[in-house]
Design brief:
The chain contains six helices and eleven strands. The chain has helices at residues 8-21, 26-33, 40-67, 88-103, 137-143, 257-260, and strands spanning 108-126, 129-135, 148-158, 161-177, 186-204, 213-231, 237-255, 264-274, 281-295, 298-315, 322-338. A hairpin with an 8-residue loop joins strand 4 and strand 5. The longest helix is centred in the N-terminal third of the chain and has 28 residues, at 40-67.
Length: 339
Amino acid sequence: MRAGRGSTGLSAAACAMCVAVTPSARGACASACGDVGAGGAAAVVDVLVDALVDAGESDDAAQDSEDRDPVDAADVGVQPAGAGGRNVDAGVDADVDASISASVESWRAELMILCWLPGIDGTVGVGGETASAHESFLDIVDSSDSLFGYCGRVEAGQGAWSVFLDGLYDRATDENAVNPIGLADLEVTFEETLLDFGAMYRLIGSHDGRETSVDVYAGARYTALEVEFESASLPSVSDDRDWVDPIVGARLGLPLDALLGGPFRLAVNGDVGGFGVSSDLTWSATAFVAYDFDAWDTPASVFVGYRAVGWDYSDGTGAAAFTWDIVQHGVLFGFAVRF
């Protein structure tokens, strides 16, 4: 307790000041102010001074707290959980998953359903007999009583690598083949299975078809044939062969959006093979224009073009000789879907 102050006026003035400037000490002020007699002024002043000192100490403590740098959750990589935030472990897991997804591309696949309408040009030989065949697809349709076929292509891959299988099966008859003495009285029926398969590597471009792309590939061509000759002037004869040729090739894709004003693209590919392994030479060339669209939220295409496949194959001698020195060529169209 501090030294007393003995004036009633001082006591009243101190009382008013105590209540006005120290709201937190109003209870103590009121108690001291109740006694404004001797010593009352001293009591009021003591309460006033104590309250002011306490207020000053509180302000200093608050300032010290503000001066200290608080630990920011963001500085240590911690974000609040709940609405608008995420758990730290969950965030780390998500970042790792995203990194893995970015580094590993998904598998992709394309299925093509093809319709090829080939004519035939060249020389066919069975049992020592040969015939010249030069028929367009329409000629074969007109002269044939048996014509059908199935063909398609499957391609699947990941990243720059892919594998492919391209197949054809058909049976056709040419009733106007020319026999060795020049008479067009020879009927040639052939049943053919053709399979191209191998691996492909993309050198340039993506797989979405919207930019120029270049692929190279290597694989094999499997050919299986059963050929029959029937003639009014010669004995009927038939034979069959199957063989495999190595092939190497390349494919070029060009977007045609700017030229045709839509999601069109051009695809051109060609290969060469044989190299004396089975055929002296085999080759193929294909070109088509495709229109890309979405079918039931799945990327798809329709296309039309032209395809040619050739062989220079012979096996055996004399009555066992077999020759397939043929080029098949014609219009190609179809539908493709990508997954």
